[in-house]
């Protein structure tokens, strides 16, 4: 049995707060783990996430979701160029992660996670969208140099979410992937580490 919606919400909040606490020590012009991105671009990308969450929640509805957790995560690959350009543009502006959190956290805390929000990829259940933000926050927190130590529940949610994407196409590889240490699996699943033997053809599941 996976985490309930309150655990998902709380894990994202803790992960975002951990990133915010790390910000004063981050050298924004130092290269990150993402090729072509400095810490500045990673922070810019992260800083937009609370803003988007507030915007999506404000327009939430009871309509049926059409996008699953798995398709949302896998769907980041076709959007890679758009995401890259947006991060580079945002890095020029004064996006402040902490200031954006001050607005977003009360909204997230009060939100009904059963509603549907409409993102760039389409209508998705808010609880599933919050899981995708957990994945983003864990992965990009670790992209920073020095990396942000993930919240353990957010880390576990990220592991399971990426496994669920793998299972969509390669259910036979679940046991192989699940046997890997959490960080090794996340790095391989997101293209930040070499795929272990037996998983080369299936990874990365998202970028």
The best one-word shape is globular
Q: Alpha-carbon distance between the termini? A: 27 Å
CATH topology: Four Helix Bundle (Hemerythrin (Met), subunit A)
Assembly type: single chain
Number of strands: 2
Helix-strand category: mainly alpha
* Largest beta sheet: strand ordering: 1-2
Strand content range: under 5%
Low-confidence stretches: none
CATH superfamily: dinb family like domain
- Mean pLDDT comes to 92
Q: What's the structural domain tally?
A: 1
Classified by CATH, the class is Mainly Alpha
Describe what this molecule looks like in 3D:
The longest helix has 20 residues, at 39-58. Helix 2 (39-58) runs parallel beside helix 5 (97-110). The chain is built from nine helices and two strands, in the order H-H-H-H-H-E-E-H-H-H-H. It has a two-stranded antiparallel ribbon with strand order 1-2. The chain has helices spanning 5-22, 39-58, 69-74, 80-92, 97-110, 126-143, 152-169, 174-178, 182-189, and strands spanning 116-119, 122-125. The chain is mainly α and 207 residues long. The chain has a single domain, classed as Up-down Bundle (Four Helix Bundle (Hemerythrin (Met), subunit A)), CATH 1.20.120.
């Amino acid at each position: 049995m996976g985490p309930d919606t309150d655990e998902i919400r709380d894990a994202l909040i803790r992960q975002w707060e951990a990133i915010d606490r790390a910000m004063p020590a981050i050298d924004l012009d130092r290269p990150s783990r993402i090729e072509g991105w400095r810490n500045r671009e990673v922070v810019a990308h992260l800083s937009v996430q609370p803003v988007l969450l507030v915007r999506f929640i404000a327009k939430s509805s009871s309509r049926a979701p059409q996008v699953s957790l798995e398709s949302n995560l896998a769907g980041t690959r076709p959007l890679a160029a758009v995401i890259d350009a947006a991060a580079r543009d945002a890095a020029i502006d004064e996006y402040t992660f902490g200031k954006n959190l001050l607005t977003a956290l009360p909204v997230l805390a009060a939100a009904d996670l059963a509603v549907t929000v409409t993102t760039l990829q389409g209508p998705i259940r808010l609880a599933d969208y919050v899981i995708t933000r957990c994945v983003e926050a864990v992965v990009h927190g670790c992209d920073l140099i020095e990396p942000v130590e993930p919240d353990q529940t957010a880390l576990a949610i990220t592991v399971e979410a990426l496994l669920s994407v793998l299972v969509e196409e390669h259910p036979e590889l679940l046991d192989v992937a699940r046997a890997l240490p959490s960080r090794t699996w996340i790095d391989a699943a997101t293209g930040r580490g070499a795929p272990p033997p037996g998983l080369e053809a299936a990874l990365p599941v998202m970028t």
